[in-house]
Amino acid sequence: MMNAFDIARRLRAAGVLGLNGRNAEYTLPYNRRDCYPLVDDKALTKQLAMSAGVAVPELYGVIEIHRQMRELPALIAQHWDFVVKPARGSQGDGIVVVTGRTGSLFRVADGTFLDEEEMTFHVSNILSGIYSLGGQTDKALIEYRVIFDPVFEAITYRGVPDVRIIVFLGVPVMAMVRLPTRVSGGKANLHQGALGTGIDMATGRTLTAVWGTSIVEEHPDTGNPVAGVTIPRWDVLLELGARSYELTGLGYQGIDIVLDRDKGPLILELNARPGLAIQMANREGLRLRLEQVERYHTGLKTIAERVAFAKERFAARPAPLQ
Predict the structure, then answer these.
(1) Alpha helices of the chain — where are they, by DSSP H?
(2) Which of 155, 152, 153, 146 is nearest to 224 (CA)?
(3) Of 160 and 4, the one with more pLDDT
(4) For the chain, what is the largest distance between any 2 Cα atoms, rounded to a whole number of angstroms?
(5) Do 93 and 131 meet the contact criterion of CB atoms below 8 Å apart?
(6) Rounded to whole angstroms, how far apart are CA atoms 73 and 52?
(7) Residues 6+ apart with CB under 8 A from 260
(8) Which end of the chain is less packed: N or C, by CB atoms within 10 Å?
(9) Where are the beta strands (DSSP E) in 82-204?
(10) Does the pLDDT at position 6 exceed 80?
(11) CA–CA gap between residue 227 and residue 218 (Å, rounded)
């Protein structure tokens, strides 16, 4: 039986990156503090992307202070479906996805209903900072609800899947599709119970998935295999990932992209502290890939070169991490 030291040694030899290693070796050295507000505030991220000509979900309106709450009924009355989210939230907390209406009630993605009073109360909680990083006062964004690409129909439950790409010094190094489940309430957040399915960086084809701490091959709600699905317009997603480096100035970051049925790839958000479960989804450690980028990134001058490097160096290996 291996002790903790032996396990840690084997994980490091396999290139598995832990939280302390991520923070000390990548987040702190490569992410300037003055760049964090660009990704911690989703309203700023959206403005930044639009100014660079990058597509994002349309913003219908922003509620910034409590006296603007009187404008909320008129704002949401214009839209049959929409999303309410905190500008400074994290891990999907505080996001309400309205998929339609039944009379005066708002139908939510998880199958429940909210009345106007409950919706107003939720937005008020967002402004108070209940869902924000550090509990700071926040603002509520009302935006377009993404209708996901039908390629994911057989392997998702109610919500909208997204593609998370880890980008280091402008090079996409690892990716996964986050698939909503019944347990996650239709949200694409792993800590709430969504699946994370690895992606072959060369082809955009999905691999096996992680659900909690287990490796799975089928979606728990649909029963369909999660592997072997080709992500549409994969090269475009890789290019968006590579462009995020110039967009934010952050050396180590995650980019979340949704594939809309009609609008194509849309940047959902950027993250200066992306989680590490993506390694389990791909059954491979991040560290060895990051070290390759550190070694060769000075010779990668263009976005096309960085994408080509990622596809060549980080193609899925036939032997999974043991």
Answers:
(1) 4-13, 19-22, 28-30, 36-40, 42-51, 72-77, 116-128, 234-248, 278-282, 287-296, 303-313
(2) 155
(3) 160
(4) 64
(5) yes
(6) 32
(7) 57, 146, 147, 148, 149, 266
(8) N
(9) 82-86, 96-102, 105-108, 113-114, 140-143, 162-168, 171-179, 195-199
(10) no
(11) 8
Q: Which two structure tokens, joined as six digits, stand for 151? A: 């390629």
Q: Is the pLDDT of residue 8 over 70?
A: no
How many angstroms separate the CA atoms of 277 and 42, rounded? 23
DSSP 148: B
- CA-nearest of 168, 169, 166, 193 to 179 is 193
Average pLDDT score over the chain: 91
Check whether 7 has a pLDDT greater than 90. Answer: no
pLDDT digits (tens, 9 = 90+) for 72-119: 999 999 999 999 999 998 878 899 999 999 988 999 988 899 999 999
The angle subtended at Cα 133 by Cα 129 and Cα 135, nearest 5°, is 35
| Residues 208/200, Cβ–Cβ less than 8 Å | no
Place of tokens 């194509």: 264
pTM above 0.85, yes or no: yes
What is the C-alpha separation between 109 and 158, in angstroms, rounded? 6
Comparing CA positions, the residue from 175, 237, 192 lying closest to residue 95 is 192
- Residue whose tokens read 């000390």: 24
Local confidence band at 56 (pLDDT 50, 70, 90 cut-offs) = very high
